[in-house]
């Protein structure tokens, strides 16, 4: 039995899923609620919600902690590969596409029924194009790089197949401002999430002392200035849709213009420090491309030896993504983290200092007691995002209310 999610006239609310990064689900849900999404619920690496076409457009443009917005189209139980082919062949794809469109299909399997996602994508594609060939004599073609519609398939442990339409196209972490990167650039969505997790007030001093290609600084500046996360993107998947949920350019332009009107490039200084002259140059180029150069200052220096940038505001924040040690001798990376901790104690009194790393042993060498620990993923690497509050004066100060509320978080 089929369940179709989208009303045939494309009007009203429909179900969607925002794909995100492990550890950022609650942030993503909060952002969606602020945009007017309804029935918001968090899942592992995803947030489900309901909304209309305008909410879908806003989610793609404005949600900083989201990788993709998928529109759920159909659900059905599947028994085997032939059953899957038949079900895809019976879906009324002519409501979505025609024979001139191009397709790409991505499959995620959480079932013991199938074990090869590419094969399932192929069977699903065969079901779709054979339906058109039988009806019109013409088959839609496949375009893996730039399709007019991208289809996502998920088969869960109960052998339920969910078919979704990708409204985003390229992953939303591809903001459009970053061309120059260092060897291990942080994902823009992860960077945006980490900044929000610090609860930075968007006014006080913000420092990235190992800023690399400046992704964290740019995301912080865009957050503070209310620059939409999708401001620099050139296109989205939904702009290719011509039938059900057809692209409404006037609606999109109205939403985009309203978001741009809310931009406020306030008097703010964010500081980056980068040891490599070449990487520091790339960071400055990315800052210029993001149009945040009035807010971000990067200097080529060694964080461990350089002076602290000017401090402003009641809640200065330092956020760093140091080397995890994949390309370093163990003793060297442990010494680096020890020196980072010493630098915090000597120079950054009054700061909330945050470190993300997958090297849990090296993190112990910071030599400071973390006041918060959060589990996140940087790509495939399981990491800890740790907060070190550097107090000015006695370390034995009274604990503030709720300070240990995060002790139950994964450590």
Please supply descriptive tags for the structure shown above.
alpha/beta; disordered C terminus; 411 residues; nine-stranded mixed β-sheet; 23% strand; VC0802-like; 10 helices; Rossmann fold
Please, could you describe this protein's structure?
By secondary structure, the chain is an alpha/beta fold. It folds into two domains: about 160 residues, VC0802-like; about 170 residues, 3-Layer(aba) Sandwich (Rossmann fold). It contains ten helices and 16 strands. The strands form two sheets. Strands 1, 2, 3, 4, 5, 6, 7, 8 and 9 form a nine-stranded mixed beta sheet that branches. The protein has a seven-stranded mixed beta sheet with strand order 12-11-10-13-14-16-15, with helices on one face. The longest helix is centred in the first third of the chain and has 20 residues. It is elongated, with a radius of gyration of 24 Å. The C terminus is likely disordered.
Give the CA-CA distance, first to last residue: 44 Å
Write down the oligomeric state: single chain
Q: CATH superfamily assignment of the largest domain?
A: Vaccinia Virus protein VP39
Number of domains: 2
Which CATH architecture of the largest domain?
3-Layer(aba) Sandwich
Q: Structural class per helix/strand content?
A: alpha/beta
Largest sheet: 9 strands, mixed
Give the proportion of residues in helices. Answer: 25-40%
Shape: elongated
Question: N-to-C SSE series?
Answer: EEHEEHEHEHEEEHEHHEHEEHEHEE
CATH names the topology of the largest domain as Rossmann fold
- How many whole angstroms does the radius of gyration measure? 24 Å
Task: Please report which band the strand proportion falls in: under 5%, 5-15%, 15-25%, 25-35%, 35-45% or over 45%.
Answer: 15-25%
Q: What integer is the average pLDDT? A: 91
| CATH class annotation of the largest domain | Alpha Beta
Q: Count every helix, treating DSSP H or I runs of 4 or more residues as helices.
A: 10
According to DSSP, the number of beta strands is 16
Q: Could you list the spans in which at least 5 consecutive residues all have pLDDT below 50?
A: 394-411
